[in-house]
Each structure stands twice: as C-alpha cells, then as structure tokens.
Design brief:
Layout: H1 3-26, E1 31-39, E2 45-53, H2 59-68, H3 70-80, E3 88-93, H4 96-123
Parallel strand pairs: 2-3
Antiparallel strand pairs: 1-2
Helix pairs in contact: 1-3
C-alpha cells in the first residue's frame, strides 16, 4: 500500500471509530472496533474490518446493519476527510481474534495429547 493510501486509511479509521462504536451501542452489538482499513490503489474503495464482541446480536448481523447505514458513514467520511472523491465503504467482520483462539485451543489439546502419550510411553 502506498504512503498516501495508508494515510487515507488511517484517517478513515480515526473518523469512523466513534460513530461505529456508538452505532454498536445503539444496536446492542457490544463492543465494536475498527481493526483495519485498506484502500484500493485508486482510493475509490475503503475496505473496513470491524471486530465485534459481547453483543446480543452476531457480528455478521451487526455488519449487515452497518451496511444498511453505509451512506451515513460515507457522509461522515466525506465531511471530515479531505479527498477529491469520497470512497465507497465496504464493511467486513474481522474474525482474527477468534481464529487465534481456535489455533491456541488446538495447540493446547495437541500438547496435552503429546504429554499423555509420553507419560504412557514411560510407564511401559
């Protein structure tokens, strides 16, 4: 990603962080955090990754609600980030932390299985 793309992505993340968090509170989605913003090379599209925890609705349901209000969030970006054209916003669930937890669980169970195997091998 170019320096300009990174700066624009960072600005969009700053500008949308509070509105997305507030929107999550209003919709009982728990804690919503923008974890990453990536820009297309031509700055026409902003790919926004959101992690959602502890809500009464699923993360994907929250993303669907955000998608319905995408024009409002785009207006916020247009009013606060100086760009010739306001990028189209695309929202995605960031499930990185869930994947890390699953990997850690798998590794822990493998370690226990290996320790049990080693223990049984010593007994014989």
């Amino acid at each position: 990603m170019s320096v300009r793309s990174e700066r624009v992505a960072s600005e969009i993340q700053k500008v949308l962080s509070e509105p997305i968090s507030e929107f999550a509170r209003q919709n009982n989605a728990g804690l919503a955090t923008i974890t990453n913003v990536r820009m297309s090379p031509d700055l026409q599209y902003a790919y926004i990754y959101i992690s959602v925890y502890g809500g009464k609705i699923s993360p994907q349901t929250f993303i669907n609600l955000v998608e319905q209000e995408k024009s409002t969030f785009r207006q916020i970006v247009g009013s606060k980030v100086r760009l010739r054209l306001t990028p189209e916003l695309r929202f995605f669930v960031d499930d990185t932390f869930e994947r890390i937890e699953r990997i850690e669980q798998i590794l822990a169970s493998e370690k226990k299985a290996r320790e049990a195997k080693d223990k049984n091998g010593e007994a014989n």
